[in-house]
Design goal:
This protein is α/β, with parallel strands linked by helices. It has one domain (about 1-190). About 35% of the residues lie in helices and about 15% in strands. It has helices spanning about 10-20, 75-90, 95-105, 110-125, 170-180, 180-190; strands at about 1-5, 25, 40-45, 50-55, 130-135, 145. The strands form two sheets. The chain has a four-stranded parallel beta sheet. Strands 3-4 form a two-stranded antiparallel ribbon. The longest helix has 15 residues, at about 110-125. The two termini are about 15 Å apart.
Length: about 190
């Protein structure tokens, strides 16, 4: 059983091991940390890449991801949707996933843990992959950890992106928009 540290629309480094498992532990009990992938992800753009970040209420550092409250006062949801539209509207699969992302953000989850779980559940539904989630207190504490600060053993697969060249560690939305769900399954099977 693997342990998953929540990420906002996770990278392939987090998603691929999860696709090879039917059982996982959702570790939203971990502390929120600025500079991690918990409240941000990277999108490919014409200049290289850009962060999209979910703002959190002040004073949340060190609190669990599940309890970290999202700040909704600055229009970040509109900026995220605009960035996705601007950078991916010409990709073959953007239209298939845009409404689901908008619906998730329109639901306005109150915590980072709830938003990240909603984002991951959305991606897993697109990939038609079911995971049986266990509580953080169950399973082996020495089980493999995915998400968070990175996996030194992970070799990032290359694929065609919407702009020239390849840049790793984008959100899983990058490969979904460019190649659809079949591409992620193909990469997961080849590992």
């Amino acid at each position: 059983m693997i342990h998953v540290t929540p990420e906002y629309f996770p990278r392939l480094e987090t998603l691929l091991p999860l696709l090879q498992s039917e059982h996982a532990v959702w570790r939203s009990d971990r502390p929120f940390s600025r500079g991690a992938w918990q409240n941000r992800t990277r999108l490919r753009n014409a200049d290289g890449w850009q962060w999209i970040t979910v703002p959190v209420e002040h004073g949340q550092l060190g609190q669990s991801i599940e309890q970290t409250r999202i700040a909704y006062h600055d229009g970040w949801r509109k900026r995220h949707l605009k960035a996705l539209q601007y950078n991916y509207s010409t990709t073959p699969f953007h239209i298939h996933f845009a409404d689901g992302i908008q619906a998730l953000l329109d639901d306005k989850p109150t915590t980072l843990g709830a938003l990240n779980r909603g984002a991951l559940d959305l991606v897993l539904s697109w990939l038609k992959h079911e995971v049986e989630w266990a509580s953080p207190t169950s399973g082996n504490p020495d089980a493999p950890q995915i998400g968070g600060h990175g996996n030194a053993e992970f070799v990032h697969p290359e694929y065609r992106q919407n702009y020239d060249g390849f840049i790793p560690q984008m959100s899983c939305l990058d490969i979904l928009f460019n190649h659809g769900p079949a591409a992620i399954h193909e990469i997961a099977r080849s590992r």
